[in-house]
Amino acid sequence: xxxxxxxxxxxxxxxxxxxxxxxxxxxxxxx
Length: 31
What we know:
The chain has 31 residues and is mainly beta. Helix content is 0%, strand content 39%. The protein contains no helices and four strands. The chain has strands at 2-3, 6-9, 12-15, 20-21. A two-stranded antiparallel sheet has the order 1-4. The protein has a two-stranded antiparallel sheet with strand order 2-3. The protein is elongated.
């Protein structure tokens, strides 16, 4: 599962440019 997040920079919300995987290694369903 990947989420694209926004960044709050200098008072403005800027769209994120990349995603990262949300992996929990202690949850065997994630790996």
